[in-house]
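Case study: Symporter small accessory protein.
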Amino acid sequence: MLGMEDGTIAFVWIATVLSMIGCIIFGILMWNKGGDESP
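Here is what the predicted structure looks like once written out:
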């Protein structure tokens, strides 16, 4: 299924999906954080 005959491929696929979810959550949490806008 989905080319996951090997456990390593399944692990990498799951890690990629979890990384994507982590980036989305990080982006949502940091969306309106004000930065230092002075030069």
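For the exam, be able to explain this: Helices lie at 7-29.
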